[in-house]
Amino acid sequence: AQSVAQPEDQVNVAEGNPLTVKCTYSVSGNPYLFWYVQYPNRGLQFLLKYITGDNLVKGSYGFEAEFNKSQTSFHLKKPSALVSDSALYFCAVRDNYGQNFVFGPGTRLSVLP
Amino acid sequence: SQTIHQWPATLVQPVGSPLSLECTVEGTSNPNLYWYRQAAGRGLQLLFYSVGIGQISSEVPQNLSASRPQDRQFILSSKKLLLSDSGFYLCAWSSNLYEQYFGPGTRLTVT
């Protein structure tokens, strides 16, 4: 069965500093991995995905993520955080057999001015 | 381009009343459609998904039901709401292989 872990409920970072939001996964077969962001009372917005190819994936708003197969991780990163990046971040995985996505519990990112 | 709509945006309903939430997708055909519920601004619970008209899979036993009367229309219903049905309901679509795109959500409060 597929599963996603986001080990940190909350991440605090100062504006201008680099940020990392962690994600580890378990899936049979090759994983399709995704990051989404959610602002209050809004739907989730797609940030980036890993399907195949380069382990470093670049996405929207300056975010990137690094796929590490040996560590089964897909951590979200940004070189310089903005206050406007403060939101709830979800990691998700989909295996290449099924139709369903499995989401992690979410990590709340707070960027302090 | 593709867009996804949900309505209503907010809803306050008494316990025991019926429910109908609607989701429509534009700009794509034969999408996979999904209903999620999000409680307390955290994790997503998959409720139903559909790979085609009339094809509904239920992930969680409950007093909710879903229907897909048209290719790009997905409806979430209940005959009698419970207090525990309160939450933020999200509809999403995807093509067969790639990411999901979410609607703006419906905030349901059962009183």
Task: Write a concise keyword list for the protein shown above.
heterodimer; A: 113 residues; mainly beta; 6-stranded mixed β-sheet; 4-stranded antiparallel β-sheet; B: 111 residues; 7-stranded mixed β-sheet; 11 strands
Concise account of the structure shown:
The complex is a heterodimer of chains A (113) and B (111). Chain A is mainly beta and 113 residues long.
> How many angstroms does the end-to-end distance of chain A come to?
41 Å
> What form of chain B results from the Cα inertia axes?
globular
- Please state the structural category of chain B: mainly beta
Question: Tally of extended strands of chain B?
Answer: 11
Helices and strands of chain B, in N-to-C order?
EEEEEEEEEEE
Mean pLDDT of chain B: 92
- Distance between the ends of chain B: 38 Å
Unreliable residue runs of chain A: none
- Measured by DSSP, the beta-strand proportion of chain A falls in over 45%
The secondary-structure element order of chain A is: EEEEEEEEEEEE
* Class per helix and strand makeup of chain A: mainly beta
Give the quaternary arrangement of the chains. heterodimer
Write the layout of secondary structure elements.
The complex is a heterodimer of chains A (113) and B (111).
Chain A: E1 3-5, E2 10-14, E3 19-21, E4 24-26, E5 31-38, E6 44-50, E7 56-58, E8 64-68, E9 73-78, E10 87-95, E11 102-103, E12 107-112
Parallel strand pairs in A: 2-12
Antiparallel strand pairs in A: 1-4, 3-9, 5-6, 5-10, 7-8, 8-9, 10-11, 10-12
Chain B: E1 3-7, E2 10-13, E3 19-26, E4 32-38, E5 44-52, E6 55-58, E7 64-70, E8 73-78, E9 87-94, E10 100-102, E11 106-110
Parallel strand pairs in B: 2-11
Antiparallel strand pairs in B: 1-3, 3-8, 4-5, 4-9, 5-6, 7-8, 9-10, 9-11
Give an overview in words.
- The complex is a heterodimer of chains A (113) and B (111).
- Chain A contains no helices and twelve strands.
- By secondary structure, chain A is mostly beta strands.
- In chain A, strand 5 (31-38) and strand 6 (44-50) form a beta hairpin.
- Chain B is globular.
- The N and C termini of chain B lie far apart (38 Å).
- Chain B has strands at residues 3-7, 10-13, 19-26, 32-38, 44-52, 55-58, 64-70, 73-78, 87-94, 100-102, 106-110.
- With 111 residues, chain B is mainly beta.
- Classes of the chains: A mainly beta (113), B mainly beta (111).
